[in-house]
Design goal:
Number of strands: 6
Distance between the termini: 31 Å
Order of helices and strands: HEEHEEEEH
Helix content: 25-40%
Shape: globular
Number of helices: 3
Strand order of the largest sheet: 1-2-6-5-4-3
Largest sheet: 6 strands, antiparallel
Structural class: alpha+beta
Amino acid sequence: MEFINSVKWTYAKTMPEWPHEYIVRSKVDDKLFVESVNHIRAFGYVGSFYKMSITYFDHDGMVYWTMGAPIEETIIINRCKKENSYEERLKNGTLPENKTK
């Protein structure tokens, strides 16, 4: 978590209907990035994003995930506040309209 807290997260402005942030592998320590991805995948849980299955990891009110590509192809780690996650928004009836995947 020290790594996660030390990096600069970028707000995903191209997806305002899904408020979240991300880090890019090439802009952070590669070894720590890979360790973080492995941690998400080893200790996370399988959840949904519409029809996609994604492994999520919850910590301190935030949800972390990647898009599931093999580790050598994974270039982004995403995070959002728990209340902005797909499953919370589905449960609360706050999904964006006309958005399906």
